[in-house]
Amino acid sequence: MAGDNPGSAVPGVTITQFVENIPKGCSTPDFVRKPITLTLQEGKNAIFRAVVKGEPKPEVLWKRNKKEIVDPQKYQISFSPGTDEFILQINKITADDADLYQCTAVNEYGEATCAAGLKIIQGRLVNQATDLKKEIQEFRKILKKTTPAPTPKKEVDMEQVWQLLLNADRKDYEKICMKYGIVDFRGMLRRLQEMKKESEDKQAQYVYNLTNLRHVRINEDKRSASFNLEMELKNPESRLYLYKDGRMINFGFDSDNVKHCLRQVGKKYNFIINDLQPEDAGVYQIKIEDVDIFSTELEAESIPVSFRYPLGEVRCHEQGNAVFQCTLFDPNFNAVWIHKDRQLEPSDKYEISVSNDGLSHRLVVRNAQPSDKGTYTIDLGTRSSSAWLEVERDKDDDLSSLGKDGQYRSGQDANRDGMAGSVGTGGLGGVGELYGKDGMAAGVGVEPHCRFNQGLFDVHALKGKSAILSCSLNNDLVEGIWFKDGFKITDLDGISVEKEGPVHRLVIDNVQDSHAGKYKFEAKGICTEASIFVKDPPNLDSALLEKLKKEPIVVKAGKNAMVKIPFEGRKPIRATWLKDDGELQDDARINTDCSDSFTRLSLSSTSRKDCGDYKVKLKNESGTAEAAFKLIVIDKPQPPMGPVEVVDSSTSGITIRWKPPKDDGGKPVQSYIIERQQVGRKTWVTLGETSGSSTVFTTNKVEHDKSYYFKIRAVNAEGTSEALESDAVMAATKVFPGPPAPPKIVSASKEVISLSWAAPHKTGNSRILGYRVEKCKKGSNSWTPVTDVPITERKYKVTDLKEGLLYEFRVAAINSAGVGEASAPSEAVFARDPMKPPDIVRDLKVVSTDYGSISLSWMKPESEEDRPVKGYIIEMRHCDILKWTQCNTLPIAATSYIVRGLKAREMYFLRVRAMNDGGLGNPVELDTCIKAAPPTVYPKVLVKDNVKSFMVVKAGNTIRVHIPFQASPTPEVHWLKNGLPLPAKATTTTRECLSQLIIPRAEFTDSGHYAIVLQTESGQKETFNVPESPGPIQLVEKVPDTVTLIWEPSPSEMRGSTLNYMVMRRDSYKGSWEVVADLIYTNKCTVANFMPGREYFFRVLAKNCMGISEPSETVQPWIIYRKKGKYEVRIPKFKGIDHSQPPRFLVALKPHVVTLGFDCHMSCAVTGYPAPQVTWYKDGKNISHDPTFFCKNDFGICSLVILGVTESDGGEYMVKAVNELGQAASKAVVTIKGKAFP
């Protein structure tokens, strides 16, 4: 049954609770930020965003009121981890998408729902006047179709983004990361720290200090932007470069007539971007040489409204209509038209209109007169555009070419259907198309005979080569004007202008850096623009490259080598030296440097390791070039390669063999010199030489049973190598070789078993000629050779096997003396196909975790009988690392393992794989990463018997309070006195889930209410103290002869503490309080069993594990009135009876087992006449008058009440009844036990 629906702090959110009681730490869903109603233009994308909360984390669902959300292309639902936003995006909205959209967050305890609307604005041009001519109406239709396409989004190099983050303020990190798709915020911070150190080291090469970095901002005039910094250069001649979006741009100095300008005052550098346009948005970088100094971004949104297509010059015939048209980048509905310092208002003379999107603005001057000519300006507040209107008088010979509205036409019959033609084709009164073929504004109302057949295109020209800009008009009689960077081209060096019919060309014979810029060709009010980009890549002398390619550089070992490569090209040019495709790094012996005209590599004290293929790569913004060469360092050869092999040894001679040197020093080996020394002597004797192609030498200058050492040296043109020395070789009779190591099993199948072995340590006194391999069935001593001829290699594949048998193998070496001793047998191996790897393990789970280890367990694979498991391998990896690491070096047989040596609170992935003779099985990985930390235990105080909620301490004594608790991880423990920090003399200690409060030499001022607060790592606090008293009590009689108590909850319960209530009552007759209800978890209780006519008082107490609160009592008594009936007394007639009798117990006392701290009620029934006198005893001591015990005798029902029993209350209790006729007694034992709950 659902509980009461809680309210939300966010207006418009409805929360429904599914269950009555929600567990501690859990909650129903709610909205932190709900989606808002949107009003958007048709064709845009609508995005609803919502942020929700709840435990467990709720699932978010989106619904639509009228239709279902089923099209994944139309409706895109996603979640942004960086902002915790649930997003519904509706692409390219139409009028049908106007609806109410519902967002619902659901978990197992409830749901939260809210709604947001979507309103659609259908875009169309405004028709204000109804008396315009048909041509103007048609023009509007064309204008509607020619809305400029949105500017394509720029692609920014991520390296520029990292440089931007490196120089950005920390408060802007999130915005930049969201803009460029960086989601690993922690990884971003680590990388920035590494980049910062590296950047500071590089900047230190050129700059003493760098301060006051101010990012780009729009200036007050709204026409320019600037950014600045302060730096002190180590070398004032260091070159400074400006880049935009990774591309170097030119800038001027102290001039407002250039696009980009630098103003320097002392150490302050101020960069200015003039005539702001939307294309100026991007990432700007300042570099000194090739080192990044500062990066900043000019955002397109911050650039003021500007013109995509400004006003163009208009020529109109007298009494015709002149039309001015312009298009903006951003909407503006407050534009003002001005002519002759006078603001124009809509009238019969002037028609002013603006499109619904605020981008297209239009002024029509009707019935133009010569007095109307002049400059017309549209003022946007921050920017303006002006154009000239020229009104020409009528001429008789031109009447045939005029339209009805007085503007130029090519003939009335050009477009009789009234549809718009191209510029100059008639049919629209000279209005024509909005834009030329090159995309530039053609100028509405221009002379219709002039248009572009082909516009200008950007040209990328190499420095020193030629470049041509060319465009074509439809009229070969029209002259034009060329502009560069807004200035008319008159006498610019190296530029010539050509005209060939309708084709206009601008020719640059020898392109230089000064020719780079934006060029414009303008004719009859129309224009086309393009840019020339000058590329000057690094250039190397072709003759030098050819020489380096053909002739290697040769240098002797120990000498210095220096290679200098001259080059030309645009600065800066970066040079990178490589050796064998690996970049060279400067050290004590290697030095690379680069200047404006050359780069140089210097190697000091060269050696053979410096030989190789070298390459230098030159790079600038225009391109790359490279030069390659080979460096040869010649030296004496290395020693011949050993070991020296004894081919033959006998009493008549010794034959030895060696291998050529690994490195011949760059020159061929000419010969080998062989020396001999008899063991025990100091002199070496030269035996002779061999040619460079022979590595075998035989000497007969030996004596019987004498041992000798041999040295071999290699000789080339540069010198003699160090010597290769042999072991002692004895000239004696032939000796058999020693046993090799046992052979190893490489692989096994039912047909072939592959073996391998190592050579014996003792080869005898001659070289090994081969090996003999023998096989034997396991358990048999019959060894059989596998082949009749010696095996020259140290491996062999044994065939002729019987499937299923168990084999052993051994090997013996053979030299000139014969077959040596056989090796020990190999491991036994079955002649059968390899076993398949085992299946995956089952039921992999985490048993326990702590700060340094994670304990795992699993079950064996299902198919263990077919593919028996020999062991298990456990692997782990950190959540930030992709490589798996093996935890156990050897396979384990057990199905449990403890992964140790982990970092506390770090996250790890774990997996287990089984293995057998067939190899490793597939791994089984835990579903989620595991945190190296003990399981979370919510803080809880463990109140034991020795913990009291109330203490009385004598002044001068020490206050000691021990509070045990449980929590994981270990919380922070704070003690409070009356809600405030403890006094200075109080000390607290906490260890092993036990906190202790010590106050030495207690004083009266130390009295108060002490509380303990446990704070978890997440910041949650749990306060443990005696609860506060409940609120006022209200008494209601809902059922006759009963009363229902309703009270306000304790403030401690309202703060989230878990507690219960106890209800007590007292009547005016008895005077003592008795418990009528306990362990009440609500704030109401119904009490019955009242005696009519008596007054009753009630009290309610709150209880928790720390103790009982002060009571909350009723003020007015509760009385049940009952009408008295009429009684008649009838005296019966009876005979007198003697009632005298000695005391006798009708109901004896019974043993009691009472929990510590609870009340004990003992009772019995006694009779006798006269009424006996009752006395209570404990362990023989009279307690009838002890104020700590409550004794009463109601008509023979004797009761004893012990309030709040302690351990001292246990023992033997006796009640004795005495009258004049005798006495009687009853005994019982009271046992005290510990509390049943903490």
Concise synopsis of the structure shown:
With 1238 residues, the protein is mainly β. It comes from Salvator merianae.
Describe the fold and architecture.
Strands 47, 48, 50, 51, 52 and 53 form a six-stranded antiparallel sheet that branches. The protein has six helices and 96 strands. The two termini are 31 Å apart. It has 1238 residues and is mainly β.
What is the topology?
Layout: E1 14-17, E2 27-33, E3 38-41, E4 46-55, E5 59-64, E6 75-80, E7 85-90, E8 99-107, E9 110-121, H1 134-145, H2 158-167, H3 173-180, H4 185-203, E10 207-218, E11 225-233, E12 240-244, E13 247-249, E14 252-253, E15 260-265, E16 268-273, E17 282-288, E18 291-298, E19 307-309, E20 314-317, E21 322-328, E22 336-339, E23 342-343, E24 350-354, E25 360-365, E26 374-379, E27 384-392, E28 452-454, E29 459-462, E30 467-473, E31 481-484, E32 487-488, E33 495-500, E34 503-508, E35 517-523, E36 526-535, H5 542-550, E37 553-556, E38 561-566, E39 574-579, E40 582-583, E41 590-594, E42 598-603, E43 612-620, E44 623-634, E45 641-649, E46 654-659, E47 671-678, E48 685-691, E49 696-699, E50 706-716, E51 719-720, E52 724-725, E53 729-731, E54 744-748, E55 753-756, E56 770-777, E57 784-785, E58 795-798, E59 806-815, E60 818-822, E61 829-830, E62 842-849, E63 854-859, E64 871-878, E65 885-886, E66 896-899, E67 907-916, E68 919-920, E69 924-925, E70 930-931, E71 937-941, E72 959-968, E73 972-977, E74 980-981, E75 987-991, ...
Parallel strand pairs: 3-9, 14-15, 20-27, 29-36, 37-44, 89-96
Antiparallel strand pairs: 1-9, 2-4, 4-7, 5-8, 6-7, 8-9, 10-11, 11-16, 12-13, 12-17, 15-16, 17-18, 19-21, 21-25, 22-23, 22-26, 24-25, 26-27, 28-30, 30-34, 31-32, 31-35, 33-34, 35-36, 38-42, 39-40, 39-43, 41-42, 43-44, 45-46, 46-49, 47-48, 47-50, 50-51, 50-52, 50-53, 54-55, 55-58, 56-57, 56-59, ...
